[in-house]
């Protein structure tokens, strides 16, 4: 008796393949910018024609330049993610996963084998929904990286071109800190992160609050 033929594999999704190709290409490009000094200099110099007049301040106030650049870069990244993020879907997915895990844990504590079996059968579907939501967020990474990489390249070139005396700043925990010196990471990167991360969190939470408020008003309007 001959074995039944295997079902044909589903045809690859061209959109998914293109998305994966773009993601890989941008990651490779980011690595080249990170390790290739000539490429980083070329890209940073090109971007500098726009950013230098806006936030360069003639190299006289590097901390202010880092602050302004951090705001621009973080705002671009957060706003791009905001317009392509389904906050309600994320909240629903997290709530479903949390409730499912509680029910599964309860069934195991009670040794309810029938319930464990049923929940275990449903677990792949729950995990797939959560994974789909995470995947949709990962698709935004190439877009945000396209905004971040050139600005970081410019900052690297700009900081490297500062007068050594100007590149020394005072921070709350130390005096006479050289921005070009390194402590695991260059000091200017650490200072930039200290400025941009809190701003990004505040902006992201603010946009999320207004998005939920907008959706709540829409629900109330439909119910009225």
Word description of this protein:
By secondary structure, the protein is mainly alpha-helical. The protein folds into two domains: 54-85 and 141-224, no CATH class; 87-139. The protein is 76% helix and 6% strand. The chain is built from seven helices and four strands; from the N terminus they run H-H-H-H-H-H-E-E-E-E-H. The chain has a two-stranded antiparallel ribbon with strand order 1-2. A hairpin with a 2-residue loop joins strand 1 (168-171) and strand 2 (174-178). Helix 1 (14-35) crosses helix 2 and helix 1 (14-35) packs parallel to helix 6 (141-160). Residues 1-7 have low confidence and may be disordered.
Give the total of domains.
2
Count of extended strands: 4
Q: What is the element string, with H for helices and E for strands?
A: HHHHHHEEEEH
- Strands across the major sheet, in which order? 1-2
Q: What spatial form do the alpha-carbon principal axes imply?
A: elongated
The residue fraction in helices comes out at: over 70%
Largest sheet: 2 strands, antiparallel
Question: What proportion of the residues form beta strands (DSSP E)?
Answer: 5-15%
- Report mean pLDDT, rounded to a whole number: 77
What structural class results from the helix and strand content? mainly alpha
Oligomer: single chain
Number of helices: 7
Poorly predicted spans: 1-7
N-to-C CA distance: 66 Å
**Radius of gyration, taken over Cα atoms and rounded to an integer in Å:** 25 Å
């Amino acid at each position: 008796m001959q074995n039944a033929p295997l079902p044909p594999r589903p045809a690859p999704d061209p959109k998914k393949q293109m998305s994966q190709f773009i993601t890989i290409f941008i990651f490779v490009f980011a690595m080249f910018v990170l390790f290739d000094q000539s490429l980083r200099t070329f890209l940073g110099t090109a971007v500098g024609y726009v950013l230098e007049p806006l936030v360069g301040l003639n190299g006289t106030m590097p901390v202010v330049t880092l602050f302004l650049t951090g705001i621009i870069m973080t705002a671009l990244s957060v706003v791009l993610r905001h317009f392509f993020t389904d906050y309600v879907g994320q909240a629903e997915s997290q709530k479903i996963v949390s409730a499912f895990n509680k029910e599964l844990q309860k069934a195991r504590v009670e040794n309810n084998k029938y319930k464990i079996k049923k929940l275990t059968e449903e677990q792949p579907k729950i995990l797939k929904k959560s994974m789909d939501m995470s995947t949709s967020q990962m698709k935004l990474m190439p877009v945000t990286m396209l905004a971040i990489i050139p600005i970081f390249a410019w900052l690297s070139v700009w900081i490297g071109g500062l007068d050594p005396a100007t590149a020394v700043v005072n921070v709350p925990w130390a005096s006479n800190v050289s921005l070009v010196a390194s402590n695991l990471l260059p000091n200017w990167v650490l200072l930039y992160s200290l400025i941009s991360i809190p701003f990004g969190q505040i902006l992201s939470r603010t946009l999320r609050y207004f998005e939920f408020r907008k959706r709540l008003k829409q629900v109330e309007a439909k119910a009225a």
